[in-house]
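Sample pair:
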Amino acid sequence: MEILEVLRRPVITEKSTALQERGKYVFEVALDANKQQIKQAVEQAFKVEVDKVNVVNLPAKWRGPGRRRGRRSPRKKAVVTLKAGHKIEFFEGV
């Protein structure tokens, strides 16, 4: 799996922005990616050293009332903790 296949997009929310102050960054990743692949992808893409990776699987959900009811796709998020002194410039100023 290549870098662009592993990392889908960064997650920009209030909670993820607060985590950035502690050196933690949140990404949406491919459903079949594992922790080692996520670590390698972040290190190669942003030229930083990763300390650890935590993964959260979000299952599909039915949303909406009645006839407008639809299914939200399953997702996988990764919370990446960087080693001290490293930060991702891509997220700065967001």
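The longest strand covers residues 50-58.
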